[in-house]
Amino acid sequence: MAHTTIRGVIAPNLTPFHADLSVDKARYVAHARHLLANGCAGLAPFGTTGEALSVGIAERMDVLEALIEAGVDPARLIVGTGLTSLPDTARLTRHAVDQGVAGAMILPPFYYKNVSEEGLYAHYARLIEMVGSEKLAIYLYHIPQVSGVGLPVRLVARLREAFPDTVVGIKDSSGDWENTRALLAIEGLTVYPGNEMALIEAMGLGAPGCITATANLNGEALSNAIHLIADGRLEEAEPAMEKVKAFRAKFKGTAAIPAQKRLLALASGEPDWAIVRPPLDMLAVEAGRALAEELEAELGFSVFQPAA
Amino acid sequence: MAHTTIRGVIAPNLTPFHADLSVDKARYVAHARHLLANGCAGLAPFGTTGEALSVGIAERMDVLEALIEAGVDPARLIVGTGLTSLPDTARLTRHAVDQGVAGAMILPPFYYKNVSEEGLYAHYARLIEMVGSEKLAIYLYHIPQVSGVGLPVRLVARLREAFPDTVVGIKDSSGDWENTRALLAIEGLTVYPGNEMALIEAMGLGAPGCITATANLNGEALSNAIHLIADGRLEEAEPAMEKVKAFRAKFKGTAAIPAQKRLLALASGEPDWAIVRPPLDMLAVEAGRALAEELEAELGFSVFQPAA
Predict the structure, then answer these.
(1) H or E element: which one contains A109?
(2) For domain A8-237, which CATH number applies: 3.20.20.140, 3.20.20.70, 3.40.350.10, 3.40.50.1470?
(3) pTM of the entire structure?
(4) CB–CB of A88 and B57 under 8 A?
(5) Which pLDDT belongs to residue B1?
(6) What are phi and psi of B167, to 5 degrees?
(7) Record: contact B120-A279, CB cut-off 8 A
(8) How do B167-172 and A138-142 pair as beta strands?
(9) CA distance A237 to chain B (A)
(10) What is the residue extent of each domain of chain A?
(11) Interface ipTM
(12) In terms of CA atoms, which chain B residue is nearest residue A283?
């Protein structure tokens, strides 16, 4: 396929729920459109931040369709579709491909641990065969600290070489810069770091941007920093990056999910924004207020009117 | 519900595949019936040993229906139904309940790691509400070394207390005897150890038997040992247990899946029995032959005619 790389910051957009825990599609679409209108070059629906593995297969397909029906350009979407089984991953991936999305971000099968490189290779090879579409563009999804199963650099290189038209990139959420650097050395592979901590270095080695949880709140600042880097204006980019990195440092791992949802609840006045599905826990109102005050006092960031 | 406990050895029956990786339903049913006719008091379809998380939702429902249509008594089945999301777990669980099974063996949501006890409690509480059936009997499934998410004893006690008609038991595959002992102290909870290593001790504290991978090959010997224990014939039970424990020691963790499948391929002359789905790897023929010879030479166990 003629694959087009999304350049800039991509938000793994949050999934809002109603009080009965069903997906709030209207708010999902509104948040997605807001992000795209305010700095985000693309979205990665159903990543770890979007509580993908807490959302059912039918719900995920339904929400993706709603997003596109609402006018969101599928060419700006890299959709998470990885489950533990081949048939269900193939089903979700084929659906995303049929919607015309830019790519599918696919976790390794993550139930069995310490599996072989050969076993992981066979999973992706078979998946590509099962989806059976020239339109399929896979972004591998490496987030071993959550999934429990990583994708060794050697395996990524092997998949890229074997399926050059299909395995186009990777999201590296390991937070391990040496790993990201090794991936950036793989010929023709698009590498999105899973956070903004080493963005200047990563873009210097060819990364087109990043896919980062904090883009749900801080997309505009991230976007501005990325444009400064892309334009080679490093003297301005460096302080801009320091600011987004300081923001990021306020959110630890998956706790960024309930924290950002609580901040969005405070900002929007819609308390349901704070709802997460089990097994995650909601962040309490008081903790959210304290975090909002800290962001304002220390970084001049207002959740009520995000700084540009 | 009037829940009946299955007493004896329960096999987490293996899932056979065709060469194209589709489930071989005919062989699935034949193996299940063979196990029930040869020592196994029950089956636990779609446990870790049954490669449950590598099989799709629709496939799992289809196979369960085929099993029951073939005449297997659903009262002898404790079916694995745990996935990472509430909607899909509820869907699979409700289907199993509608088939009249003895119980549903349910993993905690296992994508996010280091989640809170409260978050896990909320998941099961919500699941029970979503399934909405008095016929639901849940066996919690604790296998942290594979799933990456365990069920603390305190949480199990809390779920048992809050849902005494629904949370009836647990399969403890941790291999941690202290944990199993602590679970056996929970009032009214049925505890199946996930292997045969401490069966005399566990049954002495009230366990009705065990759910163990090796029952796929060694069900009859396990069954005999359990009956000796249940009858209080410990002098005979002890050497019988030493023998099944020595058998077990030949199979390490999830490697027991490809190993037992290869042995069944050799025994049946049907090479497809050896097939596993990615990310697991098949055991090579030579390694299977060497294992079969070792079992024969050291334990007098013939895969070609399992010892009683």
Answers:
(1) none
(2) 3.20.20.70
(3) 0.97
(4) yes
(5) 45
(6) -85, 90
(7) yes
(8) unpaired
(9) 34
(10) 8-237
(11) 0.97
(12) B119
